[in-house]
Amino acid sequence: MTAEPFYKVAACVLIVIAVRIALRPGQARRFGTAAFWLLLGISFGVGTHLPPQVIGWMVTGMIVLAATGQVVGIGQREDRSAERESSARKLGNRLLFPTLAIPVIIVLGGIIFKYATIDGVSLVASSQATHVSLGLAAVIAWGMALWITRARPMTAFDEGGRLLQDISWAVILPQMLAALGGIFAAAGVGDVIAKAVGATIPTQYPVVAVVAYCTGMTLFTIIMGNAFAAFPVITLGIGLPFIVEQHGGNPAFMASLGMLSGYCGTLVTPMAANFNLVPAILLELEDRNAVIKAQLPFAVALWLFNVLVMAGCVYWI
Amino acid sequence: MAASFDHEYFEIKAGKTGAYQSLSVSVSAEDLIKLVGIVLIVVGFGLRLNTLLVVFVSGIVTGLVSGISWNELMALVGKLFVDNRFMTLPVVLLVPVIGVLEYYGLQEHAASMIRKAAGATAGRILLLYQFVREATSTVALHIGGHASMIRPLIVPMAEGAARLRVGRPLPKALREKLRGHAAAAENWGNFFADDIIVAVGPVLLMKGVLDAAGYPVSVWALGLSGIPTALAAVGIGWWRYRALDKDIEQAGKDSRNGDR
Questions:
Q1: How many domains in chain B?
Q2: Which of A48, A64, A192, A267 is disulfide-compatible with A295, CB 3.0–4.6 A?
């Protein structure tokens, strides 16, 4: 089993939301907005069956819609705080069950899928287990939420759509940044950076090699928005030749702390949109960089810790 | 970190980038022009242009100057977009659940619950969340999320606790700061204890790259090397959350003194 069925479910959610937007009388720019969510829904539903070029053009379409201001939110909404307070008192802890069910199902799914095999073949591919567990958890929690609140199913689409429209086009930013990272990799941008660092830094000193490697991991992660994209480039370009080959450092220890230094970069870059920008929108923050600002002192402190630990241990372990 | 590109791709990449180690290093003009995309990103973000457009144009220009054709670029964008749908999947699947529950007062209930716990402060709630998040991610279980936990539960609880200490609705700057730290708690918990005991994503990527480069390593050595940083992340988190709690106490004092 793969996560593909859950992409189909997500596609249905997106397409229903798109139709509701197209039919909503007061919605500004309703056709542009609906087209955006429809295109995203199609890419989720049949993305693996369409030629990649077609998806590429659909993505281009979504970006044109977003950049020309055609994708907008729901606008002014009525104040329902009194209704919410009274319903919260009435339903009480039952409201928590679906939310708490999500992590419980993810944990159970993680354990079960690890051992579930039919004729020695895993029921769920290990690379997909996280997404399958999450999909299951979401669908079950969805049923629980409707049952507990006695809400009409359409309420789920309308309230979910409201939240998605708040996030708006930023919802595809993580996917677009991943695509950008892929293009950078295909064009060899990382090789250029690794070469430039290797050519300019005095790596004959062991400590300098450690600092250069960690700095390279962090800077490249800041540019790419993803430490996993930085890891092979910087490890092969700086880490292995200088720390391991030249100075005899421990490759596993180096790699692990290098990756963790990369994560410090993830904490401070808008390029890591799914960790830093989308949450800022989801939490209705006015300052889109508020999450990055909160994370900056932590990132600096932990980065220094990583560099000190690596410099102190990598040549001795 | 749950997000990843596929490993196979990087193993190929690893073989390729390994080749130039033996070459003499020098950076040519054709090389430097490839960095134009990074310049575009920095300038575009600086001018606050539409982020999606900046990212898209940067990718297209980088591809074109590196000799990739328009049609190849469209195919590349399309493939990468579909390969990375998993990044958007949680948000799309969870908003209907969270939407319904919030419509029926989930945030209000979470806030009222915390008012009964006397010792609770915003910082302690966030520290506990980060700790549980880290502990579960050592076995590669990702129970949290900004959409599923932070927005519906953790933020209302932390704000409920903070509001008790301030004695009135939080000032806007403080509210933004608290929510920024709540989003951060999820990231800190997610990133810095990943895969220590059970290897799934990043550890396998590291092993793949090092093995392909001729330095076979065990997943245990990779995982255990992360322990000092995992502990430091809890310690540094504690320091940041304590600073947040101090700001909240200060706001409480200001409010009792009538905002002189």
A1: 2
A2: A267
Residues across chain A: 317
CB pairs under 8 A between A and B: 468
pLDDT tens digit sequence for B109-164: 988 888 888 789 999 999 999 999 999 888 777 788 899 899 999 999 999 999 99
Judge whether A225 and B67 are in contact, CB under 8 Å: no
Closest CA–CA distance from residue A119 to any residue of chain B (Å):
23
CB contact under 8 A, B142 and A146: no
From B47, B62, B86, the end of a domain falls on: B86
CB-based contact (8 Å) between A73 and chain B? no
Whether B77 is in a domain gets the answer: yes
Same domain, B225 and B182: yes
For residue B111, is it within any domain? yes
Residue from the list B14, B76, B148 with its beta carbon closest to the beta carbon of A236: B14
pTM for this predicted structure: 0.82
Domain assignment of residue B22, given as a range = 8-86
Which chain A residues in 16-35 lie under 8 Å from chain B, judged by CB atoms? Answer: none
Radius of gyration, alpha carbons of chain A: 23
CA end-to-end span of chain A, whole Å? 42
Q: What is the ipTM of this complex?
A: 0.86
Instruction: Tell me if A149 and B80 make a contact (CB, 8 A cut-off).
Output: no
Kindly state whether A213 is in contact with chain B, defined as any CB-CB distance less than 8 angstroms: no
Crossing angle, helix A96-115 and helix B106-114, to 10 degrees? 100
Q: Is B232 close to A302, i.e. CB distance below 8 A?
A: yes
Q: Which of B45, B67, B86 is the last residue of a domain?
A: B86
- Map out the domains of chain A as residue ranges: 4-67, 81-150, 188-313
Question: B69: Cβ–Cβ under 8 A, 6 or more apart, which residues?
Answer: none
Phi/psi at B68 (nearest 5 deg)? -95, 135
Do residue B124 and residue B167 come from a single domain?
yes
